[in-house]
Write a structure and sequence with these properties.
mainly alpha, about 50% helix, 2 domains, three-stranded antiparallel beta sheet, 7 helices, two-stranded antiparallel sheet
Length: about 190
Amino acid sequence: MTGNGPHSYDDAGENLVPPAEQAAPLLEQVNGSRRRFTASGLAASGVLLTLASRSVMANTAQTPSGFASGNNSVHCQQSITQGRSPGYWKNYPKMWPIPSTMKFSSVFACSSKSVYHSFSMMDLLTPQAVDQNNLGMHLVAALLNARMGWTPFLTEERIRSMFSEWQNTGHFSPTVNVYWDSAQIVTYLKSTQL
């Protein structure tokens, strides 16, 4: 089969298929492919927008009371968090704004009978059997993050009061009639970390 100009011919020079009839099936294939692509593209765009927005939301944090209420409105104090995890602080002690050997009890008010009394800040960054839900570990990271200015919505004073209230009552109340145990405090503190 050879093609010269607008017609296709067989080897004997006979016209096999007129050009308009050749193009129709091809155009239908192309148009069908475009429709399927457009439809799938529109369906996937919601997924893409959701995935795109997740990374931004994953790095936002808020005050304990805003977190407790689940209020994500613009009226709730939110901030892009730059807080680092306990693992970060354990691996980079030279980045600490305070000596890593500082005793936990010198920053967080705890009695000599407290299970936290004898630990240094660095000690608590390694899981300890007495550190319920790794609360001390996450409080150390939260304090260092606040000291660095990486969590302006969560002050050092607020972090210390979380521990003090939890130690004295067994819970922390971020807002009226809401009580967090150590696991819930840790969940909140994790939300303030990258």
